[in-house]
Amino acid sequence: MFAVWITTLFLLDAATGREVCYERLGCFTDDPPWSGIPGRELAGLPSPPAAVNTNFLLYTRDNTMKYQKISPSNPSTIKASNFRAHRKTRFIIHGHLGGVDLPWISNMCRVWCDYCLTVVVLVFESENIHRHSPLIGL
Asked: From CA 94, how far away is CA 75, in angstroms rounded?
């Protein structure tokens, strides 16, 4: 009988949603739509932004060969960059199976900048985060 009570308490604890909040980003729970839905079966809460260490690399027509590193938490990096708000902005968010140094990524950045007059922001997380954990990192 004791084992039944322990199991019940464990299941009740697992059934209650947990929540984590990050300044500037808001709060996330382990309930849908964050996790436990088709296509996003990962359970758990997102890692803190500092652990994810998200990087933003800016490519424009003025700098197609060399990116400029910008930060949403440091607006001066955006002001000092070649970013132009009046141009369409496209984001490339790389997957978990490859790095940002793959040739097709830089080629896509150059093509979009040269032919589409767009601003391209390449977004990626640092390699020190576990590859299968939920990520939040702005």
From this structure: 23
User: Could you state, in order of their start, the residue ranges of all structural domains in the chain?
Assistant: 1-46, 49-124
* Residue 9: per-residue pLDDT: 45
Q: How far apart are CA 34 and CA 50, in angstroms?
A: 20
CA–CA separation, 36 and 115 (whole Å): 41
Name the nearest CA neighbour of 83 among 73, 95, 75: 75
Task: Sheet with 89-93: list strands edge to edge.
Answer: 63-70, 55-60, 119-124, 89-93
Q: Which residue has the tokens 């440091």?
A: 74
Average pLDDT, the chain: 77
- pTM of this prediction? 0.68
CA distance 38 to 42: 10
Phi then psi for 110, rounded to 5 degrees?
-65, -45
Q: Which two tokens stand for residue 93?
A: 């968010």
- Cβ atoms within 10 Å of 65's Cβ, excluding its own: 8
Look at the block and give the residue holding tokens 């209650």.
Answer: 16
102 pLDDT exceeds 50?
Answer: yes
What six digits make up the tokens of 128?
């020190």
